[in-house]
Write a structure and sequence with these properties.
about 300 residues; alpha/beta; Rossmann fold; seven-stranded mixed sheet; 13 helices; about 35% helix; about 15% strand; elongated; binds S-adenosylmethionine
C-alpha cells in the first residue's frame, strides 16, 4: 500500500482553490486510492475534500463555470489544513465520508462514521425517480427498510411518501446508533421506528413494501476488496460463499411478513449470476438504475409464495 510522504505535501501548496483541487487530484491518483463512496474519480474526490476542509459549499462551481471559485486565494494556514486532510485520506485509506463525517444521497445529507457503511444504495435513486411506483398504490402504507445501516433509505422513503410509516431494522446496534442520528437530524422520529432485528425476526409486519440493501458480497470478492471498503463493517458487506446467505433466509421468511399485494425491492450489486443460480425459477423484475439493469430487483409476494425457495 502506498502512503503520502512528507515530500508529497508541498505539491498541495497551491495558492487558489482550483490549484489545490488539481494538486489534490494528482496526489490521490498517484497514491492509487479507490473511489466509489460518493465519487468515482480523483478530481471529484479532491474537490469534495478541498471544499469541505475550507468550509465552502460542496456544490460550489469550479472550472469554467460562471461564478467559479477556482481562482479564490487560500491562505497558507488553510492550505496546510487541506494538505493534512489529503495525507489522512491517503494514509488511512478510509472513505472521504468517514473523514468528513457526512455523505450525500439524492441531495440529502447523512451523518456517517465507521459504525455504518457509507450510504450509496441504488435503491435511493429508484425512490427518487419513482422507479417502482407502478407496484405501489393506496395500499402502500407500511414500509420496512431492512438492513437499514445509517438509515438513509428509510429517511429518503419517508421524504418521498409523506403518508407512510416505516420500520427500519438492523442487527447492528452500532449501525442503529448512526441511523438514530439521521432520523433525528431529519425530524422523522414520529414516522420511522428503529428496530434491532436479525433479518425479519423482530419485524412485526405485515409490510406493503420491503426495501433491502443487504450484505451480498461473495467471499471471493470480499477477499479482494480495496482498503476503502475494508474500512467499512464486514457485517454490512459479506454475504457468504456466493453472497446469498442473507438473501436465502430473507426470501424464505418474507411472505409471512408481507401483505397480499406487497413487493420486495432488493439490491444485489454485481451478484446477478449468483442470484439466478440460487433462485433459478423465481420470477423477478429487474429495475433500471444508473449502474445498469442487473443490480436491483423487485419480487412480488405472490411470486415468493408460489416458489419453494431453498433456505
Ligand atoms: C449493505 S449495508 C446497507 C446499509 C444501508 N441500508 C445502505 O443502503 O446504506 C447492510 C446492512 O445490513 C446489516 N445486517 C447484516 N446482517 C444482518 C442481519 N442478519 N439482520 C439485519 N441486518 C443485518 C448490516 O449491519 C448493515 O448495516
Amino acid at each position: 500500500m502506498s502512503s503520502a510522504s512528507p515530500t508529497a505535501l508541498p505539491a498541495l501548496q497551491g495558492a487558489t482553490v482550483g490549484a489545490l483541487v488539481a494538486a489534490g487530484a494528482r496526489l490521490l491518483e498517484a497514491a492509487g486510492v479507490s473511489f466509489g463512496h460518493g465519487t468515482t474519480n480523483a478530481r471529484d474526490e479532491a474537490a469534495w475534500l478541498v471544499l469541505w476542509r475550507l468550509g465552502l459549499p460542496l456544490d460550489s462551481p469550479l472550472g469554467e463555470d460562471p461564478g467559479s471559485i477556482e481562482d479564490r486565494p487560500v491562505a497558507p494556514a488553510d492550505q496546510a489544513l487541506v494538505a493534512t486532510l489529503f495525507e489522512e485520506r491517503i494514509r488511512s485509506r478510509k472513505p472521504a465520508a468517514y473523514l468528513t463525517r457526512e455523505a450525500w444521497l439524492q441531495g440529502v445529507p447523512f451523518y456517517v462514521d465507521e459504525r455504518a457503511i457509507v450510504p450509496r444504495s441504488l435503491i435511493a435513486e429508484l425512490i427518487a425517480d419513482g422507479g417502482f411506483d407502478d407496484f405501489l398504490g393506496a395500499h402502500t402504507q407500511r414500509v420496512l427498510d431492512l438492513c437499514t445501516g445509517n438509515g438513509s433509505l428509510a429517511v429518503l422513503a419517508a421524504m418521498a411518501w409523506p403518508e407512510i410509516h416505516i420500520d427500519a431494522a438492523d442487527i447492528s446496534d452500532d449501525a442503529l446508533a448512526v441511523a438514530r442520528i439521521n432520523v433525528e437530524r431529519h425530524g422523522l422520529q414520529h414516522r420511522i421506528r428503529l428496530l434491532h432485528s436479525d433479518g425479519l425476526a423482530a419485524c412485526p409486519g405485515p409490510y406493503d413494501l420491503i426495501l433491502c440493501n443487504p450484505p451480498y458480497v461473495n467471499a471471493a470478492s470480499m477477499a479482494q476488496l480495496p482498503p476503502e471498503y475494508r474500512a467499512e463493517p464486514t457485517l454490512a458487506l459479506a454475504g457468504g460463499t456466493d453472497g446469498m446467505d442473507f438473501i436465502r433466509r430473507l426470501l424464505h421468511a418474507a411472505p409471512a411478513r408481507m401483505s397480499e399485494h406487497a413487493v420486495l425491492v432488493l439490491e444485489i450489486g454485481n451478484e446477478r449470476a449468483h442470484f439466478e443460480a440460487a433462485f433459478p425459477q423465481l420470477p423477478v423484475f429487474w429495475l433500471d438504475t444508473s449502474a445498469g439493469e442487473d443490480q436491483v430487483l423487485l419480487v412480488e409476494r405472490a411470486a415468493l409464495s408460489c416458489f419453494s425457495l431453498p433456505e
